[in-house]
Amino acid sequence: MNYQKVKPEEMLIFEKFASVKKKPNVRCTNEEHRQACLEYQRLALAMPYAEMKAALNKYDNSHPKMDEIKFVRDLQDKYNQSEQDVLKRIRYVRLVSKILTKVKVNGLSEE
Q1: Dist. CA 24–CA 69, nearest whole Å
Q2: Is residue 111, in this structure, part of any structural domain at all?
Q3: What percent of the chain is predicted at pLDDT more than 90?
Q4: H or E element: which one contains 74?
Q5: Residue 89 DSSP code
Q6: Residues 6+ apart with CB under 8 A from 98
Q7: Least packed by Cβ within 10 Å: which of 13, 29, 39, 76?
Q8: Domain total for the chain?
Q9: pLDDT tens, 11-58?
Q10: Interacting residues of 103 by C-beta distance below 8 A, sequence separation 6+
Q11: Distance CA 41, CA 45 (A)
Q12: Does residue 17 lie in a domain region?
């Protein structure tokens, strides 16, 4: 599996979403947020944002609509992840995409 680094800007978006204290250079200070950030990083490394975003766009724009169970199973097989992890990553990617449409973040683009 080809692991890539999580883009710092993508991680920053998630940290802000996870209600991390808004002090400069302080990230994931309490244990619950630290665990959420570690979980996000684990999933982001296994299932890169750009690839997941492309797969979701293909799913969203398919006509007739793709079978959602088959779609999730295909992602499970591709990334060797559990159904729960794939569904969680889909939610994270949709969240980051939604934030990106509202706020322009320098350095992070939807490739």
Answers
A1: 42
A2: no
A3: 41
A4: helix 68-79
A5: H
A6: none
A7: 29
A8: 1
A9: 777 766 654 444 444 455 677 777 887 888 889 889 999 999 999 999
A10: none
A11: 6
A12: yes
